[in-house]
Fold this sequence. Notes:
alpha+beta, Butyryl-CoA Dehydrogenase, subunit A, domain 3, 3 domains
Amino acid sequence: MDFSFDERTEKLRESLGTFVRTRVIPAEPLFAQPAPGPGSSGWGRPAAMAELQREARARGLWNLFMPRRSPHGAGLSALQYAPLAEITGWSPWIAPEALNCAAPDTGNMELLDMFATEEQKRQWLEPLLTASIRSAYCMTEPAVASSDASNIRLRARRDGDHYVLDGRKWWATGAMAPECELLVVLAITDPDAERRRRQSILLVPKDTPGVRVVRGLSVFGFTDSAHGGHAEVHFDGARIPVGSLLGDEGEGARLAQARLGPGRIHHCMRLVGMAERAVELMCARAEERSAFGRPLADHGEVLAWIAEARLRIDQLRLMVLQAAWLIDEVGARAARTEISAIKVAAPPTAEWVIDRAIQVHGAAGMAQDLPLAMLWAQARGLRFADGPDEVHRMVLGRRELDRQRRRRTGEDT
Amino acid sequence: MDFSFDERTEKLRESLGTFVRTRVIPAEPLFAQPAPGPGSSGWGRPAAMAELQREARARGLWNLFMPRRSPHGAGLSALQYAPLAEITGWSPWIAPEALNCAAPDTGNMELLDMFATEEQKRQWLEPLLTASIRSAYCMTEPAVASSDASNIRLRARRDGDHYVLDGRKWWATGAMAPECELLVVLAITDPDAERRRRQSILLVPKDTPGVRVVRGLSVFGFTDSAHGGHAEVHFDGARIPVGSLLGDEGEGARLAQARLGPGRIHHCMRLVGMAERAVELMCARAEERSAFGRPLADHGEVLAWIAEARLRIDQLRLMVLQAAWLIDEVGARAARTEISAIKVAAPPTAEWVIDRAIQVHGAAGMAQDLPLAMLWAQARGLRFADGPDEVHRMVLGRRELDRQRRRRTGEDT
Amino acid sequence: MDFSFDERTEKLRESLGTFVRTRVIPAEPLFAQPAPGPGSSGWGRPAAMAELQREARARGLWNLFMPRRSPHGAGLSALQYAPLAEITGWSPWIAPEALNCAAPDTGNMELLDMFATEEQKRQWLEPLLTASIRSAYCMTEPAVASSDASNIRLRARRDGDHYVLDGRKWWATGAMAPECELLVVLAITDPDAERRRRQSILLVPKDTPGVRVVRGLSVFGFTDSAHGGHAEVHFDGARIPVGSLLGDEGEGARLAQARLGPGRIHHCMRLVGMAERAVELMCARAEERSAFGRPLADHGEVLAWIAEARLRIDQLRLMVLQAAWLIDEVGARAARTEISAIKVAAPPTAEWVIDRAIQVHGAAGMAQDLPLAMLWAQARGLRFADGPDEVHRMVLGRRELDRQRRRRTGEDT
Amino acid sequence: MDFSFDERTEKLRESLGTFVRTRVIPAEPLFAQPAPGPGSSGWGRPAAMAELQREARARGLWNLFMPRRSPHGAGLSALQYAPLAEITGWSPWIAPEALNCAAPDTGNMELLDMFATEEQKRQWLEPLLTASIRSAYCMTEPAVASSDASNIRLRARRDGDHYVLDGRKWWATGAMAPECELLVVLAITDPDAERRRRQSILLVPKDTPGVRVVRGLSVFGFTDSAHGGHAEVHFDGARIPVGSLLGDEGEGARLAQARLGPGRIHHCMRLVGMAERAVELMCARAEERSAFGRPLADHGEVLAWIAEARLRIDQLRLMVLQAAWLIDEVGARAARTEISAIKVAAPPTAEWVIDRAIQVHGAAGMAQDLPLAMLWAQARGLRFADGPDEVHRMVLGRRELDRQRRRRTGEDT
């Protein structure tokens, strides 16, 4: 295990750190929420985003997320990208997008890069790589427990040269924004196939007749409007040509799985950065404010929180770096236990740190002048992204039982 | 300790339970948030509120909070009111107000009832008792740690027959609404007086020149707009007649203290009700939804959460009832240890239960279709109301040390 | 709900409090552990116990546990007994026995009182009531998960006028002591009967040939030798007359259940008292010791622990009193949800308080000069007594789901 | 950061793993506790220890702990030693000593290696390196909060060519055993000196007249007799020659500090191993035992515990490896923040895992047939070793505040 950052990574960290500190964080007020109410027409990026993107690109901070094997990114390994993703977590609703490194576009671009035809790449990947358009990912459904992917029901029936889509999706992040033109949709193409072969992924233009973006969903009161919100989308007989299939029919489950691994790492690294932002604010406040005759920093409980925060963040970071290193060494599939582990560990760690930071700020910590409430809502939300903690704990528990059984029986050492 | 509910209480519980279940909860969508963005002009009650209030009044569910000694309420003891406040917690942003039992008006009405002159009562208490106007309470200040009340700085200088106010307040709940006409303001009238005699309470018409309601503060993304939000208010040379003083000059600290005790009980009882609403939703969902071949209710972790939720709620309720009973028996001052204790215990209990309920609902638990995210934000916010947990723990710790010392030395048994 | 202590209870509390403070606690060094190693011959009561028992009896503090309906006790209700059991928890390895109110004799006496024949009562109940002999209860078995009572395997085959017992039991508390003459044994009498009718309870003299007390089991290093330890007992063809059956054949499960309810209350009340002892020691130490220039009591973390300890203990006590009151009002069966709830809540509450008290004492808190380590071990052990927490949480969870379902469907209100 | 294990480390891990699995763990019953009661004459090593030590030495597993710079050990770096110390944690009361790598001898040998004169080395270091004698470390005192080292009071007065010692120490681990011949004592030599120059370290033969080993202290009922227990030692006018001084007079505080750093790492690595042993036992049990119709491993709560255990252990190990790596790179002093962090993190992590493992075993988990109760007591005890958590959290909190202040002011980046 070697988690050292090489020279290139160190340079990128410095450059990115400066960018986020001097350009992104000062721009945060321009992205204030809640902007539009649900149903309002105000969804979409503030103009400041295009400006930030131009600058990030000029500084060589563009498409950093793209895996090394792709010709479209910066050629970074997971371990090289990890500390950069952490820095974007200081301002998680702006910085990732400013670098064209924001979910769900990142996962969609990776999918297209790996599995799209040349024609599909021209149509969708190229404009995504330049941030000319945005995309959404339609997996979760309102009527079923989507944590168990086999529950998914949206139907894509073959009808001649077309697929006809019927069903409902929600939590399609980004789909409220006008910039979003592509929906990447997980659908049932063959309900009678063997379990792992029932689903396919389809590339659906958002303006397809029969596709209706119904409304935005809020996350603890935040609409995430500047990022395109989280949409409920209805498909009522929407027809798309057969050529919209990504990869082969029946490969949806496999592709969806491939999409998840690296994305989880990105989320987790950003959570480390979110917690760092919180501890930074917490320390500053603890020294500025006084109560009962001494700075908050001299109150024993506050001091203990700060110590615990540092400890938990450092511990989490090591774990995420290890997972990144493993992905580089053995691939995301072989690293899936470690990826599940950080998926379970990262959100509550960040939640805890942010909650303590809020507490140190008093009621101000919950309001719009500080990023803490938004950071908290985002961290809490990530306990659901890619499956709730409970599912991952179940998976982790079973793997550990297997591992110990193999050791007991002498199969492993 | 006798926590039994007498016949009258049981009848009121039944009547109120029916009202909240059949009238208030069905009206919740009409109070949806976030309605206006900060700065927007959309603050204030939906029309449905007046209708609910008419009906509550007709059912004899009006001004129930008013303490027994007052001629203006239903003549209920704290123990009689406690289970009713719990029921209003099922829908905490509507039900309390529908009964004219919502903070901060309740605390303000109690203050006026106890300390106002006849003239002041005519001007302010009467319209508050009929919900013709609303009021706000201005204590917390943005520039200081208000958990330590001696930090407060808003200045009211005597100038002939007037006081002139200069300074800033925030978290003035309700003040964004047009219905709010009265600000009850804690101010420094004599900075050189002995510590406990520096402050006074003033009754300030919101439309006084020099008073400016600057903006609404959000709580984890929620503006609480239908309830009048949480305002930042600036006082720049605002002049009010000397007769606006509530009680005597220098009595502000004492009056503020008197205002707090019962209010804390109300908050805590509502938190019990909020947790009950969450556990009700959690159980329904756990039986409806299936994952991995069986209902969520059959998953061990979910079942354990439900058990813990019931246990924690029941334990909390007993503690709150005990505090209510003590207030009736010995008064709020003598019951202050028990009141501090529930202030510390109630919000995190409700937070925990609501968080588990959210988790059982998947991402839907965070969005606007369910009341869970709002319940959570409200519960979390109450860890700050009337001073953060840390302060109350400090107070409780010191009292326990005293108590044990007196036992050791034989002073007490 | 009326938890007030009546005059008789208050008098008993005062009398018992004095007895424990002035007689029992000063005698603690005489009961020091670990006295004999496992296998040693040193098990059994120090002489001081008989003296304490004589005195308790003289003070009218004898057999207080016996339920009101029995002619053999003090005629106390569960609610009257609860605060007395709490006081015995201040010194849980001595005080209960000094009053002849210690498990497992209490449960055994209750069983005999309810179900024994006159002959059985003469033989066993009478000497138990005067503490002339001691008894043990043999339920748990080493080879199966006894938390699921249907797993039990010890076999009692009918052979003419006798039962022949074969199998193994352990955690037979008290059985190591020479004073212990009776084993109350749960055995399978009819493996082919309907599930709830397979087991019976048998009264087995410890000196029956074929009964072998094999060894004592320790609890976190403590042998509990002065209380008769916790024995592993083997039954190899032990023959007892048919008249040794308690109640009817096949009623074992029902009797075992009847035995449990009140016993759980006793354990829980004692846990409250154990936590009170810990907080008393913690406060004294926090004021006596200084580090970094001020008493430990002035360190924020310590102060917060003290506050939390008081809060958690008071909350737990209310819950236990409520369960006791319910047992009096509606019987142990109807109160089984509340009994399960305190069974889950009490041990970890006491564990937490005792652990904090240990921490405040530094390493001394773990050693033999203070009762804290023993208190902790006893509290931790009670998470297993009468079934582990997990089983009770499962039961509680299912009951809550039922309750909510009945409310949803309108069956209940 | 490069935590990879090099070839030599991997070979040692394999060799040591085999040794502990095939020789040490099977010998555990021979080291059963509690052997002697306090005051008994049975303290000291079972004969099996000498046999295990011979074998470890033959296998090249001897004095591995000695830092690379010393000629007396295996020349391992902290990072090389860390995974080996982890393996000794599988059986922490036997394996470390079998390798001559057990505290407090390790710390004492390091001190002697660094600061002793040739004569002192001949007298004490050489027999310690061959395990011919054992030693104890006398720092903690019964009368003061020793977490604050400036509280220490044992006095060593200069009297001609001698020091005369008066005072009391306790928690002198190992001193009860006859094999223990050396006491390394922290004493006040100049109470009037500047604060950091008051203390000195003295090498005191245990058989010095005036030195009295009074009694053994137990840790949650365990006497740790096979390891020499934990002694209270009184010094009443004990005279030792001036040449017994280690290093210079007044250097005690500095030497004591030097002793601590690496030792903490060793404790923490062993705690990782202790937790691994617990999770191994927990998994085996969860698959063997059934309740309510299915293996414990299929109960959701148990599965979640197993998952959490794996996650927490892996996270902790990374943190400890990082601290070890830092010690090698920049020295123990520069790594002190990271060392404090693992000191705080390791014991509760191990406690949690062991507690869950106990719970899965039912009451058996607390008794002498399984190592879990002893593992737990040891882990809990380590929350006190080298200062309680609270002190380390305070230190960590202050360092984080400093770090953040330097970043805010631009002093650091």
